[in-house]
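1st attempt posting a full record on here, be nice pls
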Amino acid sequence: MSAPPTIIAGRPVGGGAPLELRLEGGRIAAVRPLSDPAPADLPWLGVGLTDLQVNGYAGLDCNAPPLADDLVARLTRALWREGVTTYLPTVITNSDEAITASLRAIAGARAADPLLAATVAGVHLEGPFISPEDGPRGAHDRAWVRPPDWDSFRRWQVAADGAIRLVTLAPEWPGSPDFIARCAESGVVVALDHTAATPGQIDAAVAAGARLSTHLGNGAHPLLPRHPTYLWSQLAHDDLAATLIGDGWHLPDAVLRVVMRVKGKSALLVSDTVALAGLPPGFYTTPVGDRVTLTPAGRLHLESDPRLLAGSVCPLHEAIAGLVQARPRHPRHRLGDGVGAPGTLSQPGVAGWLGRRYPGRPCRLRLGWGDGRDPPNLQGGPVGLRLRQGGYPPMIRPVGVGILGLGAIGQVHAGAVRRGAARRPRARPGAGRASPRGGLAH
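the predicted structure (as tokens):
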């Protein structure tokens, strides 16, 4: 016998009248306005966040093989607490053996747990086919940088059980257009970054099938000519969507505004968090890079060159909240639709990643109350994971996580959202003052 339907009522995070959702088998069966007067404690309701770039979090590193058997499960649960219900573990430049080991561990975790497979939508392979130049290479280890190689990629795809959905590369390598075309034909989205490419090389990459710019504005030389540059070329291509790191360090707010205006709904925020996110300030040695420094203000940079950033320690929801706080007139779809949908990424396996709010579609939900209570007992049983309290800007504040609907397809997840936090918001780096310097290269 199938489980009885679940009814959820809530106030949409992006604004509007309260809604009532009917969930059946992990899918939204119906959506209608709430007919009864809304109770005072009605929870906030929003689509779960999607993060296309997660290197690690809370001491858990996707790039430090051998990965513990439970690492992906622990990482996933840590991200649920932050409102992320769909994400791509990101495997970066490393040795052939290390990349293979990380991919196998992620594939094994997805195969062992359908709920993890529903959350871990695939793998983002960032490198090793990137520029060897200082600046564009960022914090990636130069020893393992190499030109695109289809045979290596196929071996890694086998190790990942076909889960590599996104690959970031530098298109200036000889043979890049052919490699990009093969990836596109196989359903893998190709992104450009960590590059020193000429405008012509970027044009050739887009013509071959590249459809995304990874953390546009970063993975770059600290100093560039006015024009032409690879940044202008990527910004000008309508066929390229763009991901942006909105932690306040990687990009000044003015640059974020410009890119979001140009790219529209094809501008997507990512966290680019590393394993040091959630750890105290200090000096660390990473498995894939140099010695790094995490400052008390939350800036993570290479110890050898403080101009070069080494990833982010800012969860996605904090980046969104900071963006709203700095510019409250940003389009609300970035809240209600889980930071926007990659409309230009129409290749199989990409367009369906984001949660949908329409009848018949699988859904991923963020659900939360202002008083920090745990989610109710729903189809998946009690979860009630508690988050730290305080320190979040108003509009968005995670307070708990639940899991709804454990059907085989289209599991429903509930993260948490809060609007109107009473505590004083955390200052966004760069907000209300000159933006931090040295954020061009990562």
